[in-house]
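Before going further, learn to read the protein records used in this course. Taken together, the tokens spell out the fold as the letters spell out the chain. A record is reproduced here so that you can trace the correspondence yourselves:

***
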Amino acid sequence: MAIVDLRHPKKNTVEMIRGLEQRKVATQPRGRDMKAKLELVREQKLYKLLPGRKKKSPLEASGVTVLNGNAYVIFDSLNLVGKVNPSLKSGRSNRLIPALSPGTGFEDITFDPQAQRFYLIIEAEEDTDGKYRSFVVEYDHEFRFQRCTRLSKTFESKNKGFEGLAHLWRGKKEYLLAMCEGNLCTAATEGGGRIQVFVRTKEENWQWTHQIALPDAAEFEDYAAISFHGDRLAVVSQASSRLWIGDIDRTAHAFAGDGITYRFPDKGYCNVEGVDWLSDDLLVVVSDRMKADKQAKRCAAKDQSIHVFRIPESKALATKKKTPAKKKTTSTKKASAGKRAQAKKRVASRKKTPVKRKAAAKRKTLA
């Protein structure tokens, strides 16, 4: 996920994030803004981009982050990270990087440019006390293992833990924002999305501080990933096959309005799992493997893939900026003046014509 920077000159990060929880704006019910649709720019099956992989190779993509012009893709059943150029063309820079981990697979990935560290999250594992918790695995910029830290939040099962992850600094304080897969951080399919906020301690652990409630307009059946881009937040859902984008009002420390819910170009996008920003109007999304026994055959066309989408409003704005009104040159002005003069002559001739006809008729009558 992209790096979050919610800095404010007068308020610290904790106050701002808590403000999002305490001053949540009333929002519209789900489903009222389904007309908005993302525009596909390009997409490709991951096995075609990563060396040594074949059509039947499992590449269950679960998260993505963009760094230095490359997309780093993680998988929920492999301790590997795929480095892919967003052009989605085969090339020498595309490769698979081993990632040492106490578990198998990851659910999301983020990067801290200040410390040059990658953070990958393991959804949930049974801890020593028999409860299920998520673990954050930390790597340096070359994916050398640094440490693995448990997060204190407990879950009901191994398959309903944290799915999304983002990282931020505020002054000398370091934060992780973890998105629960289920509503209310349970196995529920309704009730609202929740982000848990953790701060780094002196002992290098992550201490829970509070949670953020997403607006009602961003309520989905589940939550697969989050990504911040300045004051904009993107949330993607696999079960609902939808993506929500909302704005953060720094002054009010709250979500500004309802945001917009986008659907994907067609019903084949059944397994979207990760999202990050390529630019103000471009998103990179990755898809998990289809569930053959539960999903329609159409889902196979888009699974285990990487996609680039354009946000339509941004495209319209960019088009307006790129096509300014043409300035009239001197020759153009002269041509326009000539045309106006010719038009005046035609109007004058039409006015004279009826008078000539009436005079001719009078002469005939006198004769």
